[in-house]
Amino acid sequence: MKTIALLASTLVLAVSMHASEHVVNQKGKAFAPGTMKVKVGDKITFKNNDGFAHNAFSDNEANEFDIGMQKPGQDVTIEMKKPGTVEVECAIHPNMHMTIEVVE
Amino acid sequence: MKISRDRGNVLIRFIAGITILGMSVTASEELSKWLRPEHIPAPKDNQITSERVELGTFLYFDTRLSRDGTVSCATCHNEANGWSDGLPKAVGIEGREGPRNSPTVLNTAYQIRQFWDGRAKTLEEQALGPIEADVEMDMDLDELLKRLNKIEGYKVLFEKAYPGEGITRDTLAKAIATFERTVVSTESPFDRYVKGDKNAIDANAKKGFALFTGKGHCTDCHDGFNFTDGSFHNLGLGDADEGRYGLKKRAAWFHAFKTPTLRDVTKSGPYFHDGSIKTLAEATAVCGNGGRFPNSEKVSPLIVDRGLNQEELELLVDFLKTLEGTPLNIKEPTQFPQ
Ligand SMILES: [Cu+2]
To answer: Least CB-CB distance to A93: which of B229, B253, B300?
Structure first.
């Protein structure tokens, strides 16, 4: 499993003590669930259940990330560092879209 | 105002565009995802009306939209050439060659990104691009709006299509986008097959369809009724064009281009963003067998060498031929607004 460190900040450590983990599936060229509400410091694992690569990313300033080419069966975990709305898209399949609400 | 174009004709085509798609269907669940939709999607603020189609049709075919009056949208996107132009690369005013193959206008209403690199989200965003591009129509938009505002016939048509809005960038883009939206697939032998006519396509085409959805993994990208899921891939053609990477330096976008529709693909060659492939036989070989550099870093991990042999590639082409619909027969106006 590869973990993408997102602008690690000591400020969020206190919060991440209560952090929980969430899963986003990528199946049939769709993210599931399509919307998600998480807390700052929570971890989200992207799973690829399809038979081909996906590439989830977000350009939202607060929690910018780019998972890169994610092969079938591979898991990638990212951490939400700041509050805000995170629009997630797949760089390969722009019709794949989801929203993550990150709250304090 | 002198307009020879038969108003009724425009209306009939518009209505036909909708009702041709209306269908009574007994497709199996397995095949239902290939059914053509019953409606053409359009944005809330630019619904399709016959007035907008009529205006958009004139604009689409009008060479006065280019700087020197020699090139219209239809020059590079005409029905006879599958809504492309039959050339490897687009040719604009003064014979200027553009960097890419002219993509088909067919079914762009259903695309979620426009242009080979997907730089526009909507047809309204797309429509003005080629007018301004120096290798296409090379027309300054402010100049064009002045030009159109001097044509009484257009003033009347814009007023009917977009009452009180005038001739602006916005209404110009909306009208052209509306025309483009009406360029949709008609029924093909494959559609009749999907709807239950088992004899609509022959045995070889059926074998080709099985390869398309099976061993060839073509549906990994050419999925749904429009035979594209709107995805972007590096096919490893080896040319210098960086594709979607030009929008943002995202690794997955390096040399990546949009998956084109395969409907009427028999008419829209030469193929791929660089127009470097002349025949469907070559296209299926490149696409199905890992690009020009199979199993290398030069090609997307989704473009896999499926080991399709010559016979299988030919069966795939037999299948693709069944995606050709009857012509829409959209006629170029013989006279334009004056
Ligand atoms: Cu994807």
So the answer is: B229
